[in-house]
Amino acid sequence: MNRQRSKLAALLLNLVPGLGHVYWGNRSRGFIYFLLPLFMLIGGGLLAAIAESDAPMALGIAGTCLVWFISMFDMLVAVLSRPLGPDAPYGYYGHAPSAPRHPGYAEDPYGAYRSGESGAPRTADREEEPRAGFGPGEEADYPPYPPYPPVGDGRMLREPNYFSDVQRFCTVVLSFVPGLGHLYMGLVQRGVSFLAAFFGLTTALVFLSIFTGEETFLMFLGVLPIIWIYGMFDAVQLAGRKSRGEQLRDFSLIERWDMGRDGSGKSRTMGLLLAIVPGAAHMYLGLMKRGAQLMILFFGSIYILDVLGLSIFLFLVPLIWFYAFFDALQQVGRYGREPLVDKPLLDNFEANRGWLGVLLVALGLYYVLKTLVMPFIDLYLPTLGFLHELEPYIRNAVVALLLIGGGFKLMKTGRRARA
């Protein structure tokens, strides 16, 4: 087996059954894992076409999934069971919790050199802790057996429990499930935070969708890939730091966000996360007027366009979201450096109150006509059922009046500004 082959590359290649085994050197096993799902899918498709039934194709897909899981498990066993001995790669210690020690190794191999009990000469200008001498005629005051201290210091950089390459690889594999990699490294609070954030959000959104019957809540499942990617890269980064001997501190996600707070108790990280919801970050930073208007504009536009059936204007929704998102990023960047001004989107709201009232009255009348008048006519006056044919025209008339009224208002405002 080639020592230069990457375990992670083998695992990723094995997402296509058999390719990882071929890369790892098990060609016969790899071809078997690759051809079995292929024959199952082709055979299931032919039998489904002949029998005019979906059952053979479903069985072929189920068999392919089973072979895929077996192939992945076999790949994990193969990459984790490297042989010890002469063929083992340098620095590999198997599943041992610490690096192997020389038989003459003491618990404190440098204590004798610090106290002067060994044969190493102690001079007046020698520092308290032994240093590596690299000048002419100098000798490094290392012990006569490994492990040697790093250059410049007489202390080991690694933790007492050595984090081997196999343990690092296991962390990378487990990090595909948010939180498991952190739990494997002993970071319980951080691992539980990722588990709760990922699976808790999934459970809450599915429950709300089933309980309310609204599939709109499932749109927020788009946040899950962000949590998954962040948790995976965080686990990989922490595993690298642990393998270098750094002490890792176990803290939850909320505690990590609190580290970015200043004296007023505002966290920039929390502000960046809330920027996903239009207006939420502004309200968190204290810009209540601007945040409330952005939130009303975003969710109100979605509701109005859905009720009135104005799919042609749906392009306004992403425009509003991007404007609110980048405006929130700018406000978070200014926070703590310069005072924030709560400037609303509509400065002259008092002057436009009448037009806003007309808009709300028109929408209210249309909603009453659709939800109360029309059902009443269907129930008690079936002879007037032809009025249902007028509903699209009434809706179009309301929309046209609103657009025309808004246009005249903008023209009137522009003339006053030029005057």
From TrEMBL:
Keywords: Membrane, Transmembrane, Transmembrane helix
Positions of region (Disordered): 114-145
Membrane-spanning intervals of the chain: 30-51, 58-80, 192-211, 217-239, 269-287, 293-326, 354-373, 393-411
Residue ranges the record marks as coiled coil: none
Record protein name field: Multi-tm2 domain protein
Organism: Saccharibacillus brassicae
